[in-house]
């Protein structure tokens, strides 16, 4: 998890802070564990909840998909092993490097 947090911070993205979210400033990167999958973290962008109120749903969804893809790129650049998944879906980090890679 430390490597994921480091990659996010080096990219200039704030980690999600539930206390800030309670104050209406809930934008950031969340890293919840994936249930039933030891050592796997889902890395997801949490948009400020007020964005959903001010943006059309398709634009809100497009923002979310773009940030999920950006997170996938950031994780890859930092040589973190993210599970292959659909474009625009929040990546799942499985480890520091893909087995068999150098």
Description of the structure:
With 102 residues, the protein is of the alpha+beta class. Helices cover 40% and strands 14% of the residues. The chain contains four helices and five strands, in the order ααβββααββ. It has helices spanning 2-10, 18-22, 49-54, 57-77; strands at residues 28-30, 41-42, 44-46, 81-82, 92-95. The strands form two sheets. The protein has a three-stranded antiparallel sheet with strand order 2-5-4, covered by helices on one side. A two-stranded antiparallel ribbon has the order 1-3. The two termini are 21 Å apart.
Please supply descriptive tags for the structure shown above:
4 helices; alpha+beta; three-stranded antiparallel beta sheet; 102 residues; globular
Q: Give the H and E element order.
A: HHEEEHHEE
Rg value:
14 Å
Q: List low-pLDDT spans.
A: none
**Oligomer status:** single chain
Global outline: globular
In short:
This protein is of the alpha+beta class.
SSE topology:
Elements: H1 2-10, H2 18-22, E1 28-30, E2 41-42, E3 44-46, H3 49-54, H4 57-77, E4 81-82, E5 92-95
Antiparallel strand pairs: 1-3, 2-5, 4-5
């Amino acid at each position: 998890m430390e490597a994921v947090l480091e990659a996010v911070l080096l990219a200039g993205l704030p980690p999600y802070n539930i206390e800030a979210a309670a104050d209406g400033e809930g934008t950031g990167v969340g890293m919840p564990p994936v249930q039933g999958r030891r050592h796997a973290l889902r890395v997801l962008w949490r948009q400020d909840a007020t964005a959903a109120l001010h943006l059309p749903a398709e634009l809100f969804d497009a923002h979310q998909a773009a940030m999920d893809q950006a997170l996938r790129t950031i994780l890859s650049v930092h040589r973190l092993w993210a599970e292959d998944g659909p474009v625009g879906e929040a990546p799942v980090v499985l480890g520091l490097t893909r087995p068999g890679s150098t």
